[in-house]
Amino acid sequence: MANKLKIDIVSDVVCPWCTIGYKRLEKAISELGIEDQIDIEWQPFELNPNMPAEGQNVIEHITEKYGSTLDQQRASQQHMADAGEELGFKFDYFDEMRMVNTFDAHILLEYAKDFGKQTELKMAFTKAFFSDRKDVSKKDVLKETLLSVGLNAEDALAKLDSEDARLEVREKQGYWKELGVNSVPTIVFNRKSAVTGAQPVDTFKQVLSELIAEQKSI
C-alpha cells in the first residue's frame, strides 16, 4: 500500500452529495486508469447524530435544519436525481421518506474494512436508502445489506453491541471534527490535502493526476 495514493472519504450513508461525489471520483479514477494505484477508506460522519430511532420525515427535517421551502427542496431533489442519473445512480425521493440514524451503519462499515468490502458495503447502504426506500437503521435491512455483499451478517451485527466498536467510531468521528471537517463529503488525499463537496469529474482528474505524478517522483 505504500506506493498507493491514500484517499479518506469522510461521509454519511444518507448524504446524497457524498454519493454523487464518490461516483464522480470513481469515474475520474476509471477514466485515468489508476484503479490499482488508489487505496480508499471511508471515515464516519453523522449528519444527524441526535436523530431518534423513529427517524424524521425528510421534508420536515430539511425545513427544520436549513429553513428550505418545499419548492426549494423539490428543486434540490430533482437536481440530485439528475446528477445521479448521469452517474448511473438512482435517487428515488418520495413524500414519506424518513431521515434516519446511521451510527450502526458506520460500525458495520468499520467491520467491512477488514474484509476489503468497505466501499461495496457503503454503496449498498446508500442504494438501499436512496434507491430502494429502505431504512438503514433497521437490523433486518442492515443484515440483508451485509449478506448482499458477501459478509458474515451474524459476526458483523454482533459488533453493534460491542462497546469497543462503538468507541472506535466515536473516536474516528472526533478525530475528523478536530481537524475541522464539518461538511461532507470531505475527500482527503494522503492525509495532506483535501477537497470538499461533489467536485466535477474533471476537477478530480486534475487533482488525482497531480498527486499520482508527485507520488511517482518521490
UniProtKB/TrEMBL annotation:
Q: Which residues form the DSBA-like thioredoxin domain?
A: 7-208
- Give yes or no: UniProt keyword Secreted: no
Q: Any idea which GO molecular function terms this record carries?
A: isomerase activity; oxidoreductase activity
What SUPFAM superfamilies is this protein classified in? Thioredoxin-like
| Leader peptide range in chain numbering | none
* Pfam families, alphabetized: DSBA
UniProt entry tagged with the keyword Isomerase: yes
Which superkingdom is the protein from? Bacteria
Per UniProt, the keywords (alphabetical) are: Isomerase
Q: Which PANTHER family match?
A: GLUTATHIONE S-TRANSFERASE KAPPA, THIOREDOXIN SUPERFAMILY PROTEIN
Q: What is this protein called?
A: Putative DsbA family dithiol-disulfide isomerase
List the taxonomic lineage: Bacteria, Pseudomonadati, Bacteroidota, Flavobacteriia, Flavobacteriales
